[in-house]
Structure to design on (569 residues):
């Protein structure tokens, strides 16, 4: 990837990340940390490419560990975030139809 | 399709969609009303990205990839579904560490290829190698550091290992890693031995950085490692030319940094303090004499008091969650609400084990989030409150934080429960709290002590309110 374009992407993504959660209430700190933890589970696609292009045994072993860890990050992060957010309800809408 | 799009174009387009879904998902997760749908959006993005990556031209080892994904997913889904809500902080640490480890693994594979004859000629330029090295270093530190954070919160490691000159050792390790990393990046020495040593030092650095930090500060550390993993993912994304990783990683890196600052602020700690001093689990010495006596009260009297109150504010602490009393406490509050009493929950930022943790625990019991108030919202309301019910909280309601300059908690923002007309403190015994600091609140004229386990007290109070009729 072109170096300067990548620099711009780094910068813009950083601003987006900052702005997106700038006004988050304290009650959502824990779920949001968990949710952002899930998002960096995208490392899975990189680990897949690394293992997919691995040739030596050493590269395959490390690549395998990478994919396994990344899948754990993504799936585990999703499961716990979803479990936490599922419970947030307001007085108006109790029960399963509470969130929309 | 195939003559309209090449596989490469389809992949790039899908990654673009994924980036949008991630950003929209995070945006939705920052408001309680839309939070639930936020994780679904982000999840959809992850599925899209993972699926199209299998189409990457020139890839092999599909069996290994599928097996690794299956194994990792099953283990994580199984552990994530059964973890108790009280243990959530350490689970997040564990999953975060896995992400950091994966980023380091990508760096390792790419760097080991430098010395591999099969890839000879495929030379990277220095900028790419430098980012691979930096991402690898950050990822490895986040990996081993997060594992230590997990072990500490899980109670596997109880002591905080400290020795003289620890900061110097950490600095030396960091310097060694930087020197080796520079040698790899500038092509001075790209041998397998150098690369292995580089990663080993990075892993040790994660251990020595995290071991001295006390349990109470761990949430800030976990949040910091979360941000670091995001950065590592972003840098490795640059190495692989993967736009989804670059964007998602950097978004998390920035959001995580902000979140870390917010948490540190809520806990009245600066990030530097957390990383470079060992306050977290030492606590203060019991000091400062408090005059007066603690005055006990029976549950039946508290029941009458609350049943005829206009406004009751419940101040829950981690002790309530440990006693698994939140369900009974909410049952008690529902009884009061039916009688026309205004009930609110007041949450201190450090209630639970990290900011927002107590809200999750209350949500688990079914408490709607709109009657849960944080410190800034609720503090003015204590003056008009008839009964403040303190259950499992201690230091966060100790008025000496406002008045006594010699106290270790002086300056910490507290909930002004002492301002309410009546204060009921549910407590198992007469001893000082977790930090060992005497609580002046317990000795005030308007305070009564209800000596019982949180669960027991809530059950007794439910009976008492029902008896009022």
């Amino acid at each position: 990837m072109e170096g300067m374009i990548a620099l711009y992407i780094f910068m813009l993504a950083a601003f987006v990340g900052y702005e997106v959660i700038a006004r988050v209430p304290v009650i959502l700190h824990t779920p949001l940390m968990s949710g952002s933890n899930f998002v960096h589970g995208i490392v899975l696609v990189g680990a897949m490419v690394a293992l997919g292009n691995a040739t030596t045994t050493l590269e395959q072993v490390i690549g395998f560990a990478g994919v396994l860890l990344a899948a754990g990050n993504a799936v585990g992060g999703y499961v716990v975030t979803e479990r936490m957010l599922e419970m947030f309800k307001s007085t108006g809408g109790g029960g399963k139809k509470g969130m929309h | 399709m195939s003559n309209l799009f090449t596989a490469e174009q389809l992949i790039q387009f899908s990654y673009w969609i994924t980036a949008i879904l991630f950003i929209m998902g995070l945006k939705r997760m920052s408001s309680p009303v839309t939070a639930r749908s936020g994780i679904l959006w982000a999840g959809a993005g992850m599925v899209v990205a993972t699926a199209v990556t299998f189409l990457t031209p020139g890839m092999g080892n599909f069996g290994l990839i599928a097996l690794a994904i299956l194994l990792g997913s099953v283990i994580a889904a199984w552990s994530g579904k059964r973890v108790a809500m009280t243990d959530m902080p350490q689970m997040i640490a564990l999953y975060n560490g896995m992400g950091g480890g994966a980023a380091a693994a990508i760096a390792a594979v790419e760097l080991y290829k430098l010395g591999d004859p099969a890839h000879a000629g495929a030379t990277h330029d220095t900028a790419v190698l430098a980012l691979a090295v930096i991402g690898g270093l950050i990822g490895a530190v986040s990996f081993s550091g997060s594992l230590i954070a997990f072990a500490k919160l899980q109670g596997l490691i109880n002591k905080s290992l400290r020795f003289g000159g620890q900061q110097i050792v950490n600095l030396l390790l960091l310097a060694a890693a930087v020197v080796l990393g520079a040698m790899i990046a500038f092509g001075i020495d790209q041998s397998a031995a150098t690369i292995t040593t580089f990663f080993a030092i990075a892993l040790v650095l994660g251990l020595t950085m995290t071991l001295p930090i006390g349990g109470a500060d761990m949430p800030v550390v976990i949040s910091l490692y979360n941000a670091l993993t995001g950065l590592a993912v972003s840098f490795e994304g640059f190495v692989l030319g993967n736009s989804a990783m670059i964007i998602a990683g950097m978004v998390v890196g920035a959001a995580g940094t902000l979140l870390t600052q917010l948490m540190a602020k809520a806990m009245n700690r600066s990030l530097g303090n957390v990383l470079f001093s060992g306050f977290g689990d030492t606590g203060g010495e019991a000091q400062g004499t408090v005059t007066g006596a603690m005055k006990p009260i029976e549950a039946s009297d508290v029941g009458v008091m609350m049943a005829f109150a206009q406004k009751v504010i419940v101040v829950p602490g981690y002790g309530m969650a440990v006693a698994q009393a939140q369900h009974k406490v909410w049952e008690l509050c529902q009884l009061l609400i039916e009688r026309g009493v205004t009930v609110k929950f007041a949450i201190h930022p450090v209630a639970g084990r990290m900011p927002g943790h107590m809200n999750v625990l209350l949500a688990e019991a079914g408490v709607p989030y709109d009657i849960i108030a944080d410190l800034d919202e609720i503090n003015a309301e204590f003056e008009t409150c008839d009964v403040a019910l303190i259950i499992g909280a201690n230091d966060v309601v100790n008025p000496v934080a406002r008045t006594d300059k010699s106290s270790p908690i002086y300056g910490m923002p507290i909930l002004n429960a002492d301002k309410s007309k009546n204060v009921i403190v549910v407590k198992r015994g007469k001893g000082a709290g977790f930090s060992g600091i005497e609580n002046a609140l317990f000795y005030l004229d308007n305070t009564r002590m209800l000596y019982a386990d949180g669960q027991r007290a809530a059950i007794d109070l439910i009976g008492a309110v029902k008896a009022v009729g």
